[in-house]
Amino acid sequence: MDDANTSTDIRLREGASIAQRLVMSGFAAAVALCFTPGLFTHDTLEVAISVAALLVGAVFVGGIMLAPAVVWIITPDQILIGRQRPFGKLQTRVVTKDDITALQVPRSKRVKARFQLAFTLASGERLTSPPISDVTRVRETVARVATQFDVPNVETPINPLDASNPEMHLGEPLEPFSARDIRIVALIAVALCAGPYAYKLWRGLPPGPIDLMLLPIGGIAAFAVYRFANLVTGAFWIIRQDDIRVERLSGDGKPRADHIEGRDVKTITVERKGRSEDEHYTVVIRLHAGRKFRSPRVGSRQEARAVGAEIVRRLGIAPEANRI
């Protein structure tokens, strides 16, 4: 359940569904079971590795299946908190308006555009909500909750993705690597590849084919570091009304920028990158010219869809191109 701007209630959710848990735990169990043949060998090392893999798999499956799902329903007068573990009973708690004395909005250390509501109760207890899913309406949500519960002096969060900003920022401003850092990494690559060859010469042993093959690989690696190191810095998106400025660095560290306008967009989608259900969703824009732009990491699927919806609004993208 997402934040509902059209309702008097604000709903926040955290935790995967039963179907998602079964898929993730099934995958983990399948990987762990691949190590079972080692249990029937007479090699102590293989048996130890198999036992360790099965134990890690069991812990991983247990963690997935036992993690609770949490739902907060914030009404004008109270907060209803529901917590349920798979196959367990639903536990509920009601926090009334009179119990709340303070409100803070902590920011996630891992994902900068992720915010939660932290309430301090009259008893001194601190309750932290699930993340606010619509990251483009954080200030609006915080102001609304503070007004509902008459909480004074609530600090307005700094949110680079808030829709109230004239410019929304995805990612971090780019800076090229220093020439000194690039030289150090290149020298390390050369040293690692030349090390086995030098060791053989020092011991008076004839270098093998692998030792000889590593020498040119070291040179190629050093050249690649010099030529392409700055390409791994990613991209920085500046989302404005009517256009998006996508900033990148070229291989030599010089900045370059592309501009995306609504009429150029063929489709806009949200895609999952990596295996994390919570942190690896991105917004993907495909142009009529065939180019594809993938945004810096946004966060959860709900957060990425909120950002995508704001991009659609600002660029005036046609409904048929919107596949969020």
Task: Provide a short characterization of the protein structure.
With 324 residues, the chain is α+β, with helices and mostly antiparallel strands. It is 34% helix and 23% strand.
The tally of strands reads: 14
Taking the alpha carbons of the first and last residues, their distance comes to 17 Å
Which stretches are low in confidence, meaning pLDDT under 50 for 5 or more residues running?
1-6
Q: What is the average of the pLDDT values?
A: 85
| Strand residue content | 15-25%
In the CATH hierarchy, what is the class of the largest domain?
A: Mainly Beta
How much is the radius of gyration in Å? 26 Å
Main sheet: strand order: 1-2-3-4
The CATH topology of the largest domain is given as PH-domain like
Let me know the largest β-sheet. Answer: 4 strands, antiparallel
What is the count of structural domains? 3
DSSP helix fraction? 25-40%
Helix and strand sequence? EHHEEEEEEHEHHEEEEEEH
**SSE-based structural type:** alpha+beta
Structure description:
The protein has 324 residues and is an alpha+beta fold. It has three domains: 10-159, Pleckstrin-homology domain (PH domain)/Phosphotyrosine-binding domain (PTB) (PH-domain like, Roll), CATH 2.30.29; 179-230; 234-321, Roll (PH-domain like). It is 34% helix and 23% strand. The protein has six helices and 14 strands. It has helices at residues 18-33, 44-66, 138-148, 179-203, 209-228, 301-315; strands at residues 10-14, 69-74, 78-84, 91-96, 100-104, 118-121, 126-128, 168-170, 236-240, 243-249, 255-261, 265-272, 281-287, 292-294. The strands form four sheets. A four-stranded antiparallel beta sheet has the order 1-2-3-4, with no helix packed on it. The longest helix has 25 residues, at 179-203. It is globular.
